[in-house]
Specification:
By secondary structure, the chain is an alpha/beta fold. The protein has a single domain, classed as UDP-N-acetylmuramoyl-L-alanine:D-glutamate ligase. Helix content is 38%, strand content 23%. The chain has nine helices and eleven strands. Helix 1 runs parallel beside helix 7 and helix 7 packs antiparallel against helix 8. The protein binds 3-hydroxy-5-(hydroxymethyl)-2-methylisonicotinaldehyde (PXL).
């Protein structure tokens, strides 16, 4: 049997509402990936639609965890960062990468900070600049379109998009940050929604779409990112991993919609994990 892959997932724990670590850990584990975690903050819920949530910042705990791990001589095949609770954590993440990465470690960065043309309320206007400096260290960068424009310092453009616009964004992101880009929230009409991937080292661009389900279901970016990384760690190509993640995320939203669940509560990704290991 092949050696098991090991990933370090570094996100917050939102105790209720299924996103960040409560999504990344189960999805990667279900896909057969050993997953170590570093929580960046603990919140009672995520910040998307709940009021009066608790927030405990864990910035001071991150380096001691990493330094202890260093004494164990661990090898990581991937490091996956998502929601970071503060500006300071951006610099902390750069040190974490330096300390934990080996030559073959894949740095997978989801620059979680914005959606639908808006920076999330708890981030200051200079946060995207800091996040951009972290993205320069990524091997694979996975922004949505709002995050992509913020990282590039461009105006947000409303969809539906043209192929020219999407492929221009992919090229500018690859130019500025890293050779492999996955752009989420891509749509050319109101029927289908999906993602585009670009590998600047080969020039290959691929698209994956599913039917659009109306409503803003929370945590789907984390479900999608975790499924992409699961595919890549399991040896799939970038394009095949994106296709797997589009299908898995779509089915998770579909189950949630059919159940009539509150859209803030997260999606039913749990009952579809078989899809992650299907050949
Ligand atoms: O899913 C991204 C995310 C992660 N963590 C927290 C969030 C959000 C998005 O709103 O609020 C705490």
């Amino acid at each position: 049997m092949e050696r098991q892959k090991r990933v370090a997932a570094i996100h917050d724990i939102s105790c209720f509402g299924k996103c960040s670590l409560t999504v990344a850990l189960p999805i990667l584990s279900a896909a057969g990936i050993e997953t170590s975690i570093i929580p960046t903050a603990i919140l009672s819920t995520h910040t998307g639609g709940f009021e009066n949530y608790t927030y405990r910042d864990l910035t001071d705990d991150i380096m001691p965890i990493v330094d202890h791990w260093k004494t164990l001589d661990l090898h990581f095949d991937g490091i996956y960062t998502g929601f970071l609770g503060s500006f300071e954590q951006i610099d902390v993440m750069k040190s974490v990468f330096d300390k934990l990465k080996s030559e073959d470690t894949l740095i997978f960065v989801d620059p979680v900070m914005a959606d639908n043309g808006k920076l999330y309320g708890l981030f200051s206007p200079d946060f995207p600049k800091g996040m951009a400096s972290l993205c320069e260290k990524a091997d694979i960068l996975i922004p949505n379109i709002t995050e992509a424009t913020l990282l590039l310092g461009e105006e947000f453009v409303e969809g539906p998009y043209t192929k020219e616009y999407i492929e221009g964004l992919l090229a500018r992101l690859a130019d500025r940050f890293c050779s492999k880009i996955i752009l989420t929230g891509v749509y050319f009409d109101d029927k289908a929604l999906g993602a585009a991937s670009y590998d600047a080292s080969t020039g290959e661009i691929n698209y994956s779409f599913s039917d659009r389900i109306d409503g803003y279901y929370h945590g789907t970016g984390d479900v999608f990112g975790s499924a992409v990384l699961a595919g890549i760690m399991n040896g799939k190509s970038l394009a095949d991993s994106v296709a797997l993640a589009v299908s898995y995320t779509y089915h998770s939203i579909e189950r949630t919609k059919n159940a009539g669940t509150d859209i803030r509560f997260g999606v039913d990704f749990e009952r579809g994990t078989k899809e992650l290991i299907a050949e």
